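Contributing: when you submit paired examples, paste them exactly as shown. First protein:
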Amino acid sequence: MAGPPPDAGKLYEAAMNHLARYAATEASLARALARRIDRWARAQADAEPEETARASRRAKAEIPGVLARLKEQGVLNDDAFAASRARRLTREGKSRRATLAHLAAKGVKSPALADDPERELAAACAYLRRRRAGPFGDAPEQKILAAMARGGFAQSVARRALALPREEAEALIKGLAASPEF
């Protein structure tokens, strides 16, 4: 064997190293730790396959305990991850629906995102600025409406954002960047 199987201590250390580099949800960290165990198992070329599989299963059984310890210490917090990622995505011009889909793909279970029409309008303005459309450019309206619909914006929000004067749209975007809460 190239080395002993990862135990709870090694998995905790690996989790802390991962969290030092990346923002992670409970689900994504569990996947990262499982991949680490799988890499260890593949590196065991000279070992008995059944023994390696047993050791791998034992190591994977340690993952929930490591995650619970990290959550207890406050290092791993899906709600904080969701709030931070939602703020960033909204500033980038993503709709509430797109943000919810992104968070679901990251493994966050039903985040509490406020349904704020003004924030959605500001996100639509940020989207238009990024696409140089509406008050920020001269892209064809129907094409932009279709793109905004694919991006999860309601038609009423998209049309309101397209009709805004540039100064008002800029003010909404600045208010979005200055807002500390989501």
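Second protein:
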Amino acid sequence: MEDQLKKDDVVLETDHVETVDHKKERKNKTKEQLEKLENEIKDLKDKLLRNAAELDNFKKRMNQERINDRKFASKTLIGDLLGPLDQFDRVVNMPTDNELLKNFLIGFKMINDSMYQVLNQDGLKEIEALNKPFDPKYHYAVEKTHDANKPDGINIEVIQKGYLYKDQLLRPAMVKINEWSENNGEDK
């Protein structure tokens, strides 16, 4: 019977050990699940902050685009008007000996000047190109000439005026540039 009691005691102790191991295992699983959930919460918070920042940036970008749309609303219209205005400018500045025609041209020149004044007040600005160094951002070279008496890379003639509209390029100035070289004592 003593043998039996010892066997029962061992069984009871083994059952107790399994229960403790089982509790430890369950506790470890719970800790792992808790860590996993905490990491998931951390990731979700990070994503939430990123999405909030992205939304804020999107709002700012849309607001800036709206401001620019209003600011440059008349850019296309002014660009379309430049061709006819250039032609009108050439006509009113044309030389003539006819006194009657001169009087009409003086009146038309006043109208032309007032149109350009209105456009200038709205933000139109002529690009200064004559006798300035060639700048491909603002000038479009249409022709080259070789004159050793003038500096190299200088615009010597403006074929068509260029314009900026509120610091944005509306149309580059078409220019004739001077290009020469002193290599071998000859112009190239």
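If you have annotations for the second protein, write them as plain sentences, like these:
Residues 184-188 have pLDDT under 50 and may be disordered.
Helices lie at 2-71, 75-92, 99-122.
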